[in-house]
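Just curious: can you write a single protein's sequence together with how it folds?
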Amino acid sequence: MMAAPVSAIFFAGCGSGCLVGAVLSAVWRRRTPTNPQDRSRRSLRVRLPALPLPKSNLDGESQQLAVDLDGGGAANIGDLHRLPSDPCMRATRLYREPSLTPVRPNLTGSPRGLNRTIRRQASAQFTKNELSVVEEKLVIVMVGLPARGKSFISNALLRYLNLLGCAARMFNAGSSRRSKGRAGATADFFDTSNAAAKQLREELAMQCLDSCIDFLKGCSMCAAVGILDATNTTIERRCKVSRRVAEEGGIGLMFVESICNDEALLQVNYKLKLANADYEGMEAATAMEDFLQRVRRYEQVYEPLQDEEEGEDRSYIKIVDAGVKLIKHRCTLDAKKQVPSHILTLLHSIHLGPRSIYFVVVGPTTNDVQGFLGGDSPLTARGEERMNKVAAYMSQREDDEPALVMSGTLQRHLQSAHLLKVAGTLQR
């Protein structure tokens, strides 16, 4: 019973739409010239802003178009018929010799200046576009007794920040001392009662800090981090570092303290220190005794980081026993600061224990055999055979605990994980 009214409404609607379309079409034909070329020239005439084009890179066919576009004059979009229709060919025609010279746009009203140089940064994390770049400078000051993993953490931060596209460099006080002819220093050099040696250590540490600040000041239009890798075990030294950084406007400061009370881990770290250039050519027992004496000299004056030191609030992260415990204080108060949050993300997952990481490529799939790229296809018999061999190899590991396998969710990845599970090498 309701079919007829619905049909009537449908056709009535279609009729109304056709009537409106006919009226609009008649009006458009009346306002538009009959010549298609004139139509494109007269109806799509635009006013373009002043865009100085490098005419030296234009060929003869495009010279006139550049003249039309320069000076903010009126240009006809229809003139683009002189250029190839293919965008890639058009770009080649317009800019045969592309220049890598940084652009200096006239940014009227820009808070960063009128003639700010725009450079493309090789960064995905810290560069959004040429006009919105994360410009953040930060000094990370390591704190801790010798052989507590400070250099290990510094190198981990260095690799991680560079991976994210953030410029980073480490400044090690010990390496600076050895490069200045002070290699082979004994434990007496680190005795606080030795005034001359103490003064020299302070000067070397501040020279490292000055080099760190110079590095940050030389990094423009990007995020940059300088890591001061030294013991910095006293409040006096840390306050001196804080005051020096405060003299430079726009540079942040954060401390990272490594604390280790695990005796087994300390013994491993002590043995690694015997490969230090200070003990080159020295017997292992003699070198170990001298290094332990050095540690005791530092322990006599060691002052752990505090929330406030000499009236200054401290922004810090403490790592206890190689990641067993993590403490942070005033690290992410400023929501606009991005680098500290990334540093905290890394330190949450860092540890000094030994481990083995295996990267396994899955075997061929049915799409691979047929020559298709991509897709979610299962493993072939050869692919399953490959994963069985991988499972056999993993089952021969010396570790008693089963491995933790992380994989994707495609069929080939799930099949590979299942074969590892059947072989008894998968934890979860």
User: Anything to note?
Assistant: The two ends are 63 Å apart (CA to CA). The chain has 14 helices and twelve strands. The longest strand covers residues 251-259.
